[in-house]
Design brief:
Elements (H helix, E strand, L loop, with lengths): L3 H22 L4 E6 L3 H9 L5 E7 L3 E3 L4 H5 L9 E3 L11 E10 L4 E6 L6 E5 L2 E4 L4 E2 L7 H4 L19 E5 L9 H13 L3 E5 L2 E4 L3 E4 L4 E3 L9 E2 L2 H4 L11 E3 L13 E3 L4 E3 L8 H15 L14 E4 L5 E5 L2 E5 H14 L3 H17 L8
Helix pairs in contact: 2-7
The structure holds flavin-adenine dinucleotide (FAD).
């Protein structure tokens, strides 16, 4: 005999299963399920032909996040909401077409995604698909370094408000290899020089072996006292991807062919893109640029507007290194310093996903220029 609570939970789960099935089969259109609302998935969502597909998006995040400007929000140059785009702005047919849930598994043979509600942990249900796009991104790799998860933070304070303290602030950038390794050597040197020349900044070529509440331990035996640690290293697969029993590369990314079809899916109806995936014999960097282009390509492929394989031509790279200094590494040439910073800002401004954000971000920049950064701490 089932308890009342168990029966209620089961009823809820069965209801969710049924409602999803009903919603995704009546229209006659193919059912496209998109996992994630990041660069890759959002790009598919924006470009997919909604006349051909009933689109369901499943993600624990109900917005798209413009990651290149994320650092500006952690130090108060930009408002966090200025770099978010709610995914519901992209023409869903029905309220139920967006699920605030995480995918927990896929049955590739039965064309079913297993999900768990992000609002009601433990409420699990299935969603059927005709085509599936996997764009769940990745996690920051801690390389099992003890203490990182417990003690790493984002930088938030600014000198304007703590004049008395600013001379005692020290920033150490620990990097085991070269900083900005994918940039041209001349630009790397420029960045190194700029960082070293900033008062209180040090560049340490070393490996972190442990993070503690008030210090960081380095491989060479050094011990760095600190009040705040920002951890930004390589990528690691999410548990959902780790648990999938399909071919992956040594970094745990899902292997696909050049049409982005998941290897190991016998039906060929699932696709993976962005940071969670790797095209066999076509290594690409894990960047927003790659994920966004793959999303656009996949939408064309699914819309039957192309039958070609995915090709990638890098549009170049831009980076901001602080103090109104930037790096530009384009096929047409290299640029550094203030003009490059200006290009960086202009380029990202035009790439923001909507006119709302393109209006909001310059307003924030102007506010910061006139009144300084907003360092309110939001718990
Ligand atoms: C601070 C920062 C700055 C960056 N700056 C740049 C830059 O300047 N230029 C550049 O090219 N790249 C930059 N990147 C890298 C870029 O953001 C990533 O390469 C890009 O986000 C990858 O896109 P994606 O779609 O694969 O994954 P993401 O954008 O990470 O999106 C993954 C999505 O999947 C969802 N998800 C997670 N788990 C599940 C699940 N189980 N089920 C369903 N959905 C799930 C997440 O909520 C999220 O919506 C930066 C990254 C960071 C963190």
């Amino acid at each position: 005999m089932l308890s009342l609570a168990t029966r209620k939970t089961l009823k809820c789960q069965i209801y969710l299963c049924h409602s999803v099935r009903y919603l995704t089969t009546v229209s006659g259109r193919k059912r496209l399920v998109i996992l994630g609302t990041g660069w890759g998935s959002y790009s598919v969502l924006k470009n997919i032909d909604k006349k051909q597909f009933d689109v369901t998006v499943i993600s624990p995040r109900n917005h798209f996040l413009f990651t290149p400007l994320l650092c500006s929000t952690t130090v108060g140059t930009l408002e966090f909401r200025s770099i978010l785009e709610p995914v519901r702005n992209f023409g869903f047919r029905k309220l139920e077409d967006f699920h605030l849930s995480r995918a927990t598994g896929i049955d590739f043979t039965k064309h079913v995604v297993h999900c768990e509600s992000a609002l009601k942990p433990g409420a699990c249900y299935d969603v059927e698909y005709d085509r599936l796009v996997i764009g769940v991104g990745s996690l920051s790799n801690t390389y099992n370094t003890p203490g990182v998860a417990e003690h790493a933070f984002f930088l938030k304070d600014v000198a304007r408000l703590y004049k008395g303290k600013k001379d005692s602030v020290r920033v150490t950038l620990v990097e085991s290899n070269k900083i900005l390794g994918s940039f041209d050597k001349r630009l790397q040197k420029f960045a190194e020089k700029q960082i070293q020349s900033r008062r209180g900044f040090t560049l340490a070529r070393d490996l972190v072996t442990g993070v503690y509440e008030d210090h960081v331990v380095l491989k060479t035996g050094g011990k760095l006292p600190c009040g705040l640690v920002v951890w930004s290293t390589g990528l690691a697969p999410r548990e959902f991807v780790r648990d999938m029993d399909i071919p992956k590369n040594p970094r745990g990314q899902i292997l696909t062919n050049r049409s982005l079809q998941v290897q190991g899916d016998p039906t060929g109806q699932s696709y993976a893109l962005g940071d969670c995936a790797d095209i066999v014999d076509m290594p690409l960097p894990c960047t927003a640029q790659v994920a966004e282009r793959q999303g656009r390509y996949l939408a064309l492929l699914l819309n039957n507007r192309t039958s070609e394989e995915f090709k990638f031509f890098s549009a170049g790279m831009l980076a901001y290194i602080g103090g109104y200094q930037g790096l530009t590494d384009l096929p047409q040439g290299k640029l550094q310093g203030f003009p490059s910073w200006f290009l960086w800002r202009s380029a990202y401004l035009t790439q923001l996903g909507s006119w709302r954000l393109r209006m909001q971000v310059p307003v924030d920049w102007t506010k910061t220029l006139l009144f300084g950064r907003d360092i309110s701490r939001l718990e």
